[in-house]
Amino acid sequence: MMFHHKMKAEPMSKKKRGVALVTGASSGIGLVTAQALRRDGYLVFGTSRKPMADTVDGVTMLICDVTDDASVKNAVDEVLRRAGRIDLLVNNAGVGLLGGAEESTTEQAKALFDVNVFGIIRMTNAVLPVMRGQQKGRIVNLSSILGLIPAPFNGLYASTKHAVEGYSESLDHEVRTQGIRVVLVEPGLTRTAFEENLTRADRPLSVYDKVRAGAEQLMREAVAKGDAPEVVAEAVLKAANATLPKRRYTAGKMAGQVRFIRRFLPETIVDKNLRKFNGLPA
């Protein structure tokens, strides 16, 4: 009750947007996005793997492990119990993996896909019947520019994001007549805690040591100069609120440039530029 009272007293809520559920909302992009949605008039529920305070800046926090079917069901049921509906799902929970593709065991690759791809599928499958019943709903999936381009030493991570792109666009066609839209948001490099969600390959090979170290250094520098998480939150808001949404929204200048390059330049030029950017011999 206190929470609803706080929402009504919130001076910045211009209109009542509906009920939003944001996964991975304990920090970084997820936290900033949940806060932006609340300011925009949504009643917001966020999820985290570990227990947190019941509310963080007016966002109701729930425990949810996106790799666990029962945990996902419990979180969605809890939102329905408290709010009665779900208008917006933001699939943000994800983890990174740095290393040569060959340097990860199949088990590690599976664990990465379990969060980044199957986590989205679990959450989506849990809310689709709800949204279908409402004949209204929007699902925003956090992809990456690495869902558009190759990424040396982020190969497995990039493959999860390529999978998210194919899944989201296909699903959007399937559910559009049910009043539901599935939209992608593609951040570039974002200033978040670099180490926080980053895993390293579990069987490093010495043949890659030098070039992997270079790739990590390049990534650290790029992240330090990257977009603020607020840039991504702004793109999520656009994707969530557009009456006729675009299929994908790039977040930040770099993401826009990468998308343009990938779409309009010949592959040989893209290949050459990519190797140069990554410090790899032509």
TrEMBL record:
Q: Could you tell me one molecular function GO term of this UniProt entry?
A: oxidoreductase activity
Enumerate the Pfam families for this protein: adh_short (PF00106)
**Source organism's superkingdom?**
Bacteria
The record's section on SUPFAM superfamilies has: NAD(P)-binding Rossmann-fold domains
Which SMART domains does the record associate with it? PKS_KR (SM00822)
Arranged from A to Z, the UniProt key words for this protein are: Oxidoreductase
The residue ranges of the Ketoreductase domain are 18-210
Instruction: Respond yes or no to whether keyword Cell membrane is given for this record.
Output: no
The reply on keyword Cytoplasm is: no
Family per UniProt?
A: Belongs to the short-chain dehydrogenases/reductases (SDR) family.
The identity of this protein, by name, is Short chain dehydrogenase
- Organism field: Neorhizobium galegae bv. orientalis str. HAMBI 540
